[in-house]
Structure to design on (97 residues):
């Protein structure tokens, strides 16, 4: 079953960042968070969405004068390999593993 963004935030982002004031969050824990998601097998698309939403959340915090700068501004997308397709025979379609 595919997890939606709220579920991904609830499962990965909030447990790591939820205990901190936005002013205390730096690039390092954000980078570790997206790296861990990549290591855990999440798709490049899911990790990219989380990175995009993190950047947007901190931009909103700047707009609301909660923080002076965006710690996610330089957040890098980790290298994520596409899963190879499994093919059983020429008559069957390939399925991602």
């Amino acid at each position: 079953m595919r997890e939606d963004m709220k579920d991904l935030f609830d499962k990965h982002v909030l447990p790591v960042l939820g205990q901190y004031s936005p002013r205390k969050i730096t690039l390092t824990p954000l980078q570790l968070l997206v790296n861990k998601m990549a290591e855990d097998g999440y798709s490049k698309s899911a990790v990219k969405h989380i990175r995009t939403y993190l950047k947007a959340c901190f931009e909103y915090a700047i707009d609301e004068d909660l923080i002076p700068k965006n710690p996610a501004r330089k957040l890098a997308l980790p290298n994520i390999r596409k899963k190879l397709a499994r093919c059983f025979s020429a008559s069957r379609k390939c399925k991602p593993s």
In short: Strands lie at 85-86, 95-96.
